[in-house]
């Protein structure tokens, strides 16, 4: 029995065979590449395992215990450092005012706002000239004082000058160790 296939069918079978063998070659290339990558990964994991083993051999059990203890202390210190770094200390403001106040100035009221870094000082001065000198002293302390304004000043019944000063402070005055 001899089958004679028409030319149109022979052309299609050639195209199908070409596509089939091309797909087969691509599949074999993909399997070969997968095998190479798998082998390379396996060898790298072996090297990593050997390095881990070598690293674990260094140091005695006692040294490893010390290392864990030191790392625990380091974490605790880092936690406290973060807390202290964010903590605002208002006592620096009192030291600043004490160190920079003239002897003939007397403060009777103190109102501080940490959120806005402002201080409102009420007090008395012997004269307007002394009050002016006090304002100038605060203005010259640029590392701590952003701005200063006299909200109110008047002469009292006893001849002394009553005043209210508003100081806008730099936030660095509230940090630990800064005066």
Tags for this entry?
alpha+beta; four-stranded antiparallel β-sheet; 179 residues; Gyrase A, domain 2; single chain; 2 domains
Strand content: 15-25%
What letter string, H or E per element, gives the SSE order?
HHHEEHEE
**Number of DSSP-assigned strands:** 4
Give the rounded overall mean pLDDT.
Answer: 84
Structural class: alpha+beta
Poorly predicted segments: none
CATH class of the largest domain: Alpha Beta
CATH superfamily heading of the largest domain = General secretion pathway protein M, EpsM
| Rg over C-alpha atoms, rounded to the nearest angstrom | 42 Å
Shape: elongated
Q: Major sheet: size, sense and barrel closure?
A: 4 strands, antiparallel
**Which topology of the largest domain does CATH recognise?**
Gyrase A, domain 2
| Major beta sheet, strand line-up | 1-2-4-3
End-to-end gap: 112 Å
Number of domains: 2
Q: Count of helices?
A: 4
Indicate the percent of residues in helices.
Answer: 55-70%
What is the name of the CATH architecture of the largest domain?
A: 2-Layer Sandwich
Keywords: Membrane, Transmembrane, Transmembrane helix
Organism: Candidatus Staskawiczbacteria bacterium RIFCSPHIGHO2_01_FULL_39_25
Protein name: PilN domain-containing protein
Transmembrane segments: 20-39
């Amino acid at each position: 029995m001899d089958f004679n296939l028409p030319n149109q069918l022979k052309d299609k079978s050639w195209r199908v065979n070409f596509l089939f063998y091309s797909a087969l070659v691509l599949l074999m290339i993909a399997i070969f590449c997968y095998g190479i990558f798998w082998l390379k990964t396996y060898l790298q994991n072996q090297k990593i395992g050997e390095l881990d083993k070598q690293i674990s051999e260094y140091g005695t059990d006692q040294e490893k215990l010390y290392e864990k203890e030191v790392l625990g202390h380091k974490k605790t210190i880092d936690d406290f450092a973060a807390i202290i770094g964010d903590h605002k200390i208002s006592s620096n403001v009192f030291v600043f005012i004490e160190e920079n106040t003239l002897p003939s100035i007397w403060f009777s009221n103190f109102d501080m706002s940490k959120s806005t870094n402002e201080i409102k000082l009420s007090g008395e001065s012997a004269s307007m000239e002394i009050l002016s000198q006090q304002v100038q002293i605060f203005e010259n302390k640029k590392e701590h004082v952003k701005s200063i304004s006299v909200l109110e000043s008047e002469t009292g019944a006893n001849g002394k000058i009553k005043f209210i000063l508003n100081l806008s402070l730099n936030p660095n005055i509230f940090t630990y160790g800064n005066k």
